[in-house]
Amino acid sequence: MQKAIVTVTNDLTTDQRVHRTCMALCKAGYEVLLVGRQRKNSLTLAERHYAMHRMKLWFDKGLMFYANHNLRLFFLLIRKHADLIVSNDLDTLAGCYPAWKVKRFFGCKVRLLHDCHEYFRGVPELVGRKTTTSIWKAIEDYMFPKLKAAIAVNRSIANLYEQEYHVPVTVIRNVPFRRAAEPPADKGRYGIEPGQKVILYQGAVNVDRGLEEAIQAMKFLRTDAKLVLAGTGDVFEKIRQFAKEQKVSGKVVFLGQIPFQDLHAITMMADLGLSIEKDVSLNYHYALPNKFMDYIQAGVPVLISPFPEMKAVVDKYFIGETIENHEPAHLAQRIDAMLMNAERMELYRQNLVRAAEDLCWENEEKTLMGVLENIKAS
Question: Pick from 296, 289, 303, 288: which is nearest to 268 by CA?
């Protein structure tokens, strides 16, 4: 049996796209090892159909973390046999590409597949950081043009890389498995009263996700509702403190990190899903986020920023609304307008059934399997 090593910089708890990729590799006949990192607060991993390994590192963030991670990753890949290496984003390509080249030099018939989850140099964390961005650009400029196989989460991001590096990039959209109907999570478990609406944000609690404004909007909201934040990230504690300062702690529920196996039931209890990132970077502007697609599979109407990839889906299927700005009063008005219009919300939910049938991993997996067949034949 051929072996594949899939690499990420996260702790493997919540990354659904990588899990789906690993499952597809298993289906394609690979024995899979998924490699990430161990953090101090990492949750215990549930058993999966493939092997997993978390590396313990000396640093937790910044350039030293990325250098430490990729150096450890390089030596791990050199030691272990692999027929296929899958790098996820530029922050693992820096370790995967040199290991791939060394193994090829010594006669190993290993192949490399690069998956662009985002336009890495466009992430908000790099905006304004010219030195750090220039380092990543130098790495990408050297490695990306030499790639034999690359995939991306949507056409906009694929176009950016194709235009810059003249390398063909196949689109494998970041969509969930088709989900059978299942009961939603118990609202009472999270302090939500019977009859209260649930406004959900799931995913990374990072900068410029519109979370501060969403929290402030709870002060203007007329609907009896709670804002539920399912996820953690760089500004999690700052956001929680902000809710206290705004005196809306009773209207905001912080769930923290949720294993992806448990996330769908939580999403099912929502009445409205938020994906209101700010237009501060190319990465956000062209995003088609996990949470947006998860809302669709859970049958949850959405309120989004009017970014091209998300808006195209909303307009095609008529499953939600867009915001015009991030003013808290405006957000509250848009949320109220949706939650108070029962007839319109029911139409959204009906349309979400068709959207969920189209936008599912079972459809995207066919394209990925074609990519894997081409890699084996190359």
Answer: 296
